[in-house]
Amino acid sequence: MITALTELDTYYKSICDNALSIQKEAVSYKTKLDSASKKIENLTDKLQSLSYTNKELKQQNHELSQQLDAHKKVLLQYVYPDVATKLLKEQGLIKGDVESCIKNQALSEQIISPTSSILPIETEDKIPEKQANHSSESNIIQGLFNNLEGI
Fold first, then answer.
1. How far, rounded to the nearest angstrom, does the alpha carbon of residue 21 sit from its chain's CA centroid?
2. pTM, rounded to two decimals
3. Backbone φ and ψ of 150, nearest 5°
4. Which of 3, 98, 108, 121 is least enclosed, having the fewest CB within 10 Å?
5. Would you say 85 and 100 are in contact if contact means Cβ atoms under 8 Å apart?
6. What's the rounded Cα separation, in Å, for the pair 42 and 37?
7. What is the DSSP string of 17-84?
8. Per mean pLDDT, which range of 31-35, 45-49, 58-62, 120-124 is the poorest?
9. Contact at 8 Å (CB) between 141 and 112?
């Protein structure tokens, strides 16, 4: 009888040990599940944020594309074709050799860029009083000022 009770006790002990290990596994899996749920939640939020950013960037890209098309139309419609060709070639939009009667030096002297100087060339005592406030190294800017004086 003692051996039977001992065997029964050992059997119940193994059942308890197995139940305890299963419970520890369940807690471990629950922790992993909670962690995975939080990651999914964070990734879902990030996906929504990136989706919104993507939508904004697509809209901005579309607007800039329309603006670029308008600028190209103006360039091709109102600027001399040789100047347009030269400018597009400098920007890398035209590949290969394109014949042009415009020299690079003439182009750089006549095109106004952000680095163009509009500072006075001469001192004020050498410039007529009417032009004292608007002398420039750029022929285009000087021509604009001269046209304004004639009005």
1. 55
2. 0.40
3. -75, -15
4. 3
5. yes
6. 9
7. HHHHHHHHHHHHHHHHHHHHHHHHHHHHHHHHHHHHHHHHHHHHHHHHHHHHHHHHHHHHHHS-HHHH
8. 120-124
9. yes
